[in-house]
Amino acid sequence: MSDFQLQPRIVFGPQALAELHNLPSRNALLVTDKAMVKFGLAERITGPWQQRGVTFSVWDDVVADPDIATVVRGMKVMDAQQPDLVVALGGGSVIDAAKAVIYSLAQTRPQPHAARPHFVAIPTTSGTGSEVTAFSVVKAHEEKLVLVDAFMLPDIAILDPSLVASVPQSITADTGMDVLCHALEAYVSRQASDFTDALAEKVVQLVFSWLPTCWRQGSNLQAREKMHNASCIAGMAFTNASLGITHSLAHALGGVFHVPHGRANALLMADVVAWNADLNGSCSTQAAEKYAHLAQLLGLPAATPREGVTSLLVAIQTLKAEMAMPRGISECGIAATDFNVRLDEMVNQALRDACTPTNPRQPDASALAGLYRQAWAGHHDDTTQGHK
Ligand SMILES: NC(=O)c1ccc[n+]([C@@H]2O[C@H](COP(=O)([O-])OP(=O)(O)OC[C@H]3O[C@@H](n4cnc5c(N)ncnc54)[C@H](O)[C@@H]3O)[C@@H](O)[C@H]2O)c1
Ligand SMILES: [Zn+2]
């Protein structure tokens, strides 16, 4: 038996933000970060609240890749205020922090569900899909822990493309590759279904069609809207199908070396696709067939699974190159000695990551170490061209 869950309600498109101001509240809390205040995005929430006489406060203390200390600070703020409405405005870091705060505070009450405020998530990056997922990633020391609980699902997600127009080029590239990675990992996951496959296929097409335009021309609101929708649709796919070891490896790399989440995925993704497909071997895995089907949908050569997987790998590398992304971890300012010293620790974190069990091929420690080493060098051209 399988299941597919649909929540929250999604309001999307130009002017979608106006929906927030149809929601009743007497006592609202805006969870956000300093960049949202600086870019004037927080004001787009609080201005209308002021006009309507809503009592509110702003907690703008969320840091990128939130840690347990951030969650504890948020619990104190929320406990003191007891809001009836919580609005999370920001990237995945802000939305995840709000989720973890709501969840953790409710667990301290005798009736957690009764203690849950109405929760609206408004993403300002097109990346994590956190606005529709039951996941929250919280850092404990140097390890990213993935909390999974439907209790954290927002009640409403608002996708307004005008909120992502200010995302700088490098974050557009990182977060856009995160979207692609969510779709690829959900598509070959052990929990993939017809429902999640339909979503993942659409996402892959949207990303290859629109991400380069978003990167070149950040103010193109049509391209921004397409990527914003793709991000959310990918979230719907992976909250149901879960993810795979690109994410496990990326969580550990991000936790230990502070590589932004999407960039970490972009660095590891091609090697994981090749490994899942068994490109060095028979290339007859179910994952290989599914990757080849994606290549076909993209109009790329895919007469055999091997040709399809190779085409998809080339397309991924081309997309990264178009956005001037680093090819290998070695290009991310990490010293080789530091990387080698921390390798075992990262491998162990990745092995116990919540995303590992649903990967189509089960890795052991040496397979994961091998994937890190390949991604360190970033010689993907050799990988793709050597196995045609
Ligand atoms: N919950 C999930 O399902 C899920 C899935 C994948 C990743 N994650 C987690 O989400 C986090 C990453 O989230 P992210 O990739 O959205 O990045 P982020 O939220 O960390 O934001 C990255 C940077 O972009 C800035 N920013 C955000 N919106 C902006 C805008 N409109 N204009 C200008 N700057 C803006 C932020 O202030 C921040 O400095 C990681 O901790 C990752 O592990 C969660
Ligand atoms: Zn991700």
TrEMBL record:
Name of the protein in question: Alcohol dehydrogenase class IV
Domain Alcohol dehydrogenase iron-type/glycerol dehydrogenase GldA: residue ranges: 8-161
Residues making up the signal peptide according to the UniProt record: none
Organism ancestry: Bacteria, Pseudomonadati, Pseudomonadota, Gammaproteobacteria, Enterobacterales
Keywords from the UniProt entry: Oxidoreductase
Highest rank taxon of the organism: Bacteria
Domain Fe-containing alcohol dehydrogenase-like C-terminal residues, every copy: 172-376
InterPro entries recorded: ADH_Fe/GldA, ADH_Fe_C, ADH_Fe_CS, Alcohol_dehydrogenase_Fe
PROSITE patterns: ADH_IRON_1 (PS00913), ADH_IRON_2 (PS00060)
Pfam families, per database record: ADH_Fe_C (PF25137), Fe-ADH (PF00465)
